Automatic annotation (TrEMBL):
Residues 23-175 form the FAD-dependent urate hydroxylase HpyO/Asp monooxygenase CreE-like FAD/NAD(P)-binding domain. Pfam families: NAD_binding_9. The lineage of its organism: Bacteria, Pseudomonadati, Pseudomonadota, Alphaproteobacteria, Hyphomicrobiales. SUPFAM superfamilies: FAD/NAD(P)-binding domain. This is FAD/NAD(P)-binding protein. Gene3D superfamilies: FAD/NAD(P)-binding domain. Coiled coil: none annotated. It comes from the Bacteria.
Length: 438
């Protein structure tokens, strides 16, 4: 393990004020959003380690993955919660300024290349860091094997045996330690290159059915791979395209039920009523229902929450995670060629180089593995604080996609940003510091 070059390692701390030591596990969009929230809301000197097993901060926009359109439109990708159009305005100023594109479409509706979104996030990261001379940020490449929460403060234990103690740990690892995005891309290109050199090649199998699979599949085709591709997906269908949002979808008061069956009966009933009353697209109705699930969730006992995670989480994510409309059209056209088809789901095996893991389902088990506990005993509140068998686990917060493995959506980046700010604020009673409205 080793330190990368720190974003700033010369922060100046006032005399007599001890600096907090904070770890952020994950250097992707969730981790960067958490770092920004800390710098904007934590009014105390601190040193933050951005820890990632593979990637430097912002690496999600590198290479071929950076050319892929963002899954969500610009209107949902602000890292400034009080300015939801911040990314759209940044695009207008930095990408669309003076161009004809600006006159043809609203920047709020654009699915920009991920590299541009990365540049926007890093720009906002740099701006807020310039205001905090009392903050040190260090990037650290290392695989976290275990988070020991049994001591006075949490300890990270790395795969090579080294360890480090922190005042607070934010887990923002996206989809868990086993489903790395960079690894999926690299394995897919190696497999395509190998199969292209064979006389009678077997099909290339991509496991999953989310945005990552869609992006890799279309890029392989654009790169010239002409072999058969199988999509091994439990749903047997493509993710759905985005629809325009419909403000004002009204839902009735959720039941004070402690039954998952009754909770989803309420959601189905309200969805049918809202769709008939508003005459809108089902995507908008599902999104509005997802926002209400957090209220329903508070009343459910742990056994019912575990039933949701076992039986309904994947289905809920399938109908909540969307693609850019253009990507969806291209995928549908690719399926129509007959060169790409759905097959029965199968688990990828490390020895089979023609089966590529493109899954992106957040895993409560991955989180439980870090903590060496039972996933069925874990729960999480609105502020990202973990509990085990109902007892709070101090000084550990969970943010982003990995948090949605423990409670229902909405599964959006805007919700991740809100989670990050709530996590910073809710950590205050546990000793981080008072907060600032900077």
């Amino acid at each position: 393990m080793f330190f990368d070059r720190g974003a700033r390692e010369d922060g100046s701390w006032p005399a007599g004020v001890p600096a907090l030591k904070i770890a952020i596990i994950g250097a992707g969009p969730s981790g960067l959003a958490t770092a920004i929230a800390l710098m904007k809301r934590l009014h105390r000197p601190f040193e933050a380690w951005l820890v990632d097993a593979e990637d430097a901060p912002g690496a999600f926009g590198n290479g071929a993955a950076g050319l892929v359109p963002t899954t969500e439109p610009a209107r949902d990708l602000s890292v400034v919660p009080e300015r939801p159009d911040d990314f759209a305005e940044w695009l207008k100023t930095n990408w669309l300024a003076g161009g004809t594109v600006a006159t043809l479409c609203r920047p709020q509706d654009l699915h920009a290349p991920r590299a541009l979104f990365r540049d926007y996030v890093m720009a906002r990261f740099g701006e807020v860091m310039a205001l905090r001379k009392d903050v040190r940020i260090r990037t650290f490449r290392g695989h976290v094997r275990h988070v020991d929460a049994g001591g006075a403060t949490p300890r990270l234990i790395f795969r090579d045996g080294e360890c480090a103690d922190f005042d607070h740990v934010f887990v923002a690892t996206g989809f868990g330690t086993a489903q790395r995005e960079a690894a999926s891309w690299q394995a897919a290109h190696r497999a395509a290159e190998h199969l292209s050199g064979l006389e009678n090649p077997p099909p290339l199998t991509l496991v999953g059915n989310g945005p990552r699979l869609a992006a890799i599949l279309l890029h392989l085709r654009a790169d010239g791979f002409a072999g058969d591709i199988h999509i091994a997906a439990a749903s047997g269908r493509l993710p759905q395209p985005h629809a325009r949002p419909q403000p004002g979808l009204a839902f009735g008061e959720p039941p004070a039920s402690r039954s998952l069956q009754e909770a989803f009966r309420y959601v189905r009933r309200e969805c049918r009523s809202a769709e008939a009353r508003e005459g809108g697209q089902w995507q908008a109705v599902v999104d509005a229902a997802s926002a209400r699930l957090a209220i329903v969730w508070r009343n459910l006992p742990q056994v019912e929450r575990n039933r949701y995670r076992r039986h309904l989480l994947r289905l809920h994510r399938h109908f909540s995670i969307r693609l850019a409309p253009d990507v969806h059209r291209r995928l549908a056209a690719e399926i129509e060629t007959g060169r790409t088809r759905f097959v029965a789901p199968r688990a990828p095996k490390s020895a089979d180089e023609t089966v590529i893991d493109c899954r992106e389902v957040p895993s409560a088990r991955a989180l439980a593995g870090l903590l060496s506990c039972d996933a069925a005993a874990l729960s999480i509140d609105d502020g990202g604080h973990l509990a085990h068998h109902g007892a709070s686990i101090p000084a550990i917060s969970v943010v982003g996609a990995i948090a949605s493995s423990l409670r229902p959506g909405p599964f959006t980046f805007a919700e991740t940003v809100r989670q990050a700010y709530r996590a910073v604020l809710s950590a205050t009673p546990h000793g981080l510091a008072r907060t600032s409205e900077r």
